[in-house]
Amino acid sequence: MIREYQTKDLDSVMSLWLSGNQQAHHFIDPQFYQNNYEFVKMLMPASTIFVQDIDGVRGFIGLMDNYISGLFVDEHYRHQNIGKALIAKAKQLHNELTVIVYKQNSSAIAFFQSQGFEVIGESINEETLEPEVTMSCVVNHTVKIGKCAL
Prior knowledge:
The protein is an alpha+beta fold. Helix content is about 35%, strand content about 35%. α1 packs antiparallel against α2.
């Protein structure tokens, strides 16, 4: 079940954030994420967060307006459409979504492309000095029933 974040979810969300970053970004010193843990924890309430709750938090998506500030799924629950469901929830709320992904994280780029995102730019992350890509997806909310659009 996807639901809105609750304060009690903070430790689970932060655990997913830390382990997910360290697993997906092997090219960045793991200490970078340890050093930023408390800062990110403090910023969490500034995002709109939805969690996938399957007997506990198994994934989450953080949104700042139409920007995806984070999408993480517990490694034991990956490839079970949790990420796809979280993106679908974000698409319900926004007409356009953007995300920034490290260029070396090819699996994340492929995932976002499978969800309709396209690369629209490249840059260098100022903190890690790693190349990253900006991806965007325009959401079509038109639902056609017969010849009528809602």
